[in-house]
Specification:
binds zinc ion, 349 residues, seven-stranded mixed beta sheet, globular, Rossmann fold, six-stranded parallel beta sheet, alpha/beta, 27% helix
């Protein structure tokens, strides 16, 4: 039988995607094949796009990204899925065997180590089809649209971060960063009982959806040298919790300065620098709790699907653009243009 082929948006060099025809991978034991319905374009894709390479072995073979995706099963292999099932994939390639996995903390899997994800170390879903481990696939309820399913990945990151923060009723919350995860954290913090939610942003074009959502009570200008004073005044002494969703030293320090004594800072942003300068004394002398937050647990991934299915949150409303696969290059160019009001793009191959 002739090898089945498909279109894929291959990363061919720094800031360069090319449409290619590539073989559909074989369905090996434990795997399923899906026809991709939707795939969200993520900030971490932008880093790989700029670098022109993924995080896996560089053997010259075609690499395509895409880790926020759903699709329809076209070959269930030896799994219990059926042809036609709608599924969403969790990109986390956890081992299921290490001490972290066995304690239900798959986001901390020793094999994953923050990098072992579909679309980073192996080919993802910027293609017509995807073949991957059936154990990473979850059935989608009818109430979750394809586009909404394309946002389960950032939503699970926001969901885990908000739960991890230990937020309590009436807490005052700051979100530093105006990307999709910042938007979703604000929405979930409000649902979790925050009395006041603010965003520190630098680009007004990227916060239209945040304004529309009504989840944010205030916006602070990250370039304003008086920002910390304004925040302390507005909160009567500082935020209870600040979420860092950018990944830089400046924004981390904004968080550390913005929380009250004894407050908490949750770090979600991935820094491109190996080390960042940081006001350690403020954290020590004010007993500020610093915590990292990454991905989510397997149980939280299932709960994230249910957050949408149950109508608690509608991530689709944050989508600014739905584009075909061959517009992926254009999508990255727009996402890296400061003057473009794009917030979240979902690709529909
Ligand atoms: Zn992502
Ligand atoms: Zn593990």
């Amino acid at each position: 039988m002739a090898q089945e082929m498909m279109k894929a948006a291959v990363l061919v060099g720094p800031r360069q995607i090319a449409m290619k025809t590539v073989p559909v991978p074989p369905v090996e034991p434990g795997m399923i094949e899906i026809k991709v319905s939707a795939c969200g374009v993520c900030g971490s894709d932008i880093h790989m796009w700029k670098a022109g390479k993924g995080w896996g072995k560089q053997d010259g073979s075609d690499f395509f990204m895409g880790h926020e995706f759903c699709g329809v099963v076209t070959n269930p292999g030896d799994s219990s899925f059926k042809v036609g099932d709608r599924v969403v994939f969790w990109a986390n390639l956890y081992c299921g065997k290490c001490d972290m996995c066995l304690s239900g903390q798959e986001q901390l899997c020793r094999e994953v180590n923050g990098t072992n994800y579909i679309g980073f170390v192996c080919n993802g879903a910027y293609a017509e089809k995807f073949v991957g481990k059936a154990s990473n696939a979850y059935l989608l309820p009818d109430t979750v649209s394809d586009v909404a399913a394309g946002l389960i990945d950032p939503l699970m990151v926001a969901y885990h971060a908000v739960r991890h923060s230990g937020i309590k009723l009436h807490d005052k919350v700051l979100v530093v960063g105006s990307g999709i995860i910042g938007h979703l954290i604000g929405a979930l913090a409000k649902k979790a009982g925050a009395s006041y939610v603010a965003m520190s942003k630098i680009n007004d074009l990227k916060i239209e959806k945040a304004k529309e959502s009504g989840d944010f009570d205030a916006f602070f200008d990250g370039r304003d040298p008086q920002q910390t004073e304004s925040m302390r005044e507005a909160t009567n002494g500082g935020f209870d919790i600040a979420f860092e969703a950018v990944g830089s030293g400046d924004t981390l320090n904004t968080c550390v300065e913005a929380v009250r004594p004894g407050g908490a800072v949750v770090m979600i942003g991935n820094s491109m620098e190996p080390q960042v300068p940081f006001s350690m004394n403020r954290a020590v002398l004010q007993e500020i709790r610093l915590m990292g937050s990454v991905s989510c647990t397997r149980k939280e991934f299932e709960e994230t699907i249910d957050l949408i299915a149950s109508g608690m949150i509608d991530p689709e409303k944050y989508v600014t653009d739905i584009l075909p696969l061959d517009a992926l290059q254009h999508a990255f160019e727009r996402l890296t243009t400061e003057t473009d009001p794009v917030l979240k793009i979902v690709i529909k191959p």
